[in-house]
What does this fold into?
Amino acid sequence: NLIVEKISQEALHEIIMNVLKNNSSQVTAYKAGQTKLIGFFVGKVLQESKGSAQPEQTRILIEKIIYELL
It folds into this structure.
């Protein structure tokens, strides 16, 4: 039975910010209407967090950050 340690909100936020910063052209495309890119961002964050981030929580937070902070 595999137990995946959950990631803290602060650590998740930091990973998301780094992913968005390193993929600014995709962020621009997402904001221009290419909303399918959300899967790209979630995948990158899950990769960076080594699978410890929850996909749905990650998607919601990415969308919030893009619209509120970027």
The chain is about 70% helix and 0% strand. The helical segments are 9-22, 24-31, 38-48, 55-69.
